[in-house]
Amino acid sequence: MLCVSRVIEADEELVEAIVRLLPQLSASAPAPSVGDLSEIVGSPATVFFVLRNGEGGTIVGALTLAIFRIPTGVRAWIEDVIVDQAVRGQGGGELLTRAALDAARAAGARTVELTSRPTRQAANRLYQRLGFVTRQTNLYRYDLL
Asked: What domains appear along the chain, each with residue ranges and CATH number?
């Protein structure tokens, strides 16, 4: 049975899991260190969730929720959702997303946003089923590197 928990401390198990899972999300993202993950977990602006294969089992997924205040209110973004290919289709993405929505709601967020590539068809179907709607906006990126 898959279960979600909020990470309160980064450790070697978390690093090993993210290093193993990250290539399933991005081929170019560098592997994070314990320090990197500690910064994420310790930040008041982020909530880091993991998906485990059973209570206390192997980490098989992760999601980062960024929460921030702007003049128009508290906003939240879901980022870096990863579910291990071995357990996809078993509801892990939904469990992670619902945990993020609950945390955003508890923090007073007005909205929760995310982006998902069109090629991630199952993920897009999930987000739509959960009530996310496509926004008519332009998404821009400026590369600093």
From this structure: 2-129 (3.40.630.30)
